[in-house]
Amino acid sequence: MPILKWVGGKRQLLDSINPLIPECSTYYEPFIGGGAVLFGRQPNKAVINDSNEELINVYRMIKEEPEELIAALSAHKKQNCEEYYYTVRAWDRDKETYQTRTNVERAARIIYLNKTCYNGLFRVNSSGEFNSPWGRYKNPNITNEATIHALNTYLNKANITIKCGDYREALKGIRKGAFVYFDPPYMPISSSASFTGYTAGGFGEEEQIALKEQCDMLNAKGIKFLLSNSSCEFIEDLYKDYIIDHVD
Question: The whole model's pTM is what?
Answer without folding.
Answer: 0.91
